Amino acid sequence: MFIKFLINQQYHQEALLEILRYETTHKNFHIEPFINKIICLNAVGEYEKALYDYEVKCPAELKNTELTYQIALIQFKLKTTISQ
Length: 84
Known about the structure:
This protein is mainly α. 76% of the residues lie in helices and 0% in strands.
């Protein structure tokens, strides 16, 4: 809940730190913190890192609609940035 609070308050860098802390203390993959991580990476402009984490770290069976939507937003932003 604290991570979502930080995201809602536009503290994306701080939320990324909390997510990193969460990832180091929990060895199993959890989709909710991962989606929050993708949202934060998008917000701070780390598009390539978000796409890399999605492709490499996320199991295929957990690539749900919300996560796919966030990745599509990042791909659109990245494509728009490159074409300018």
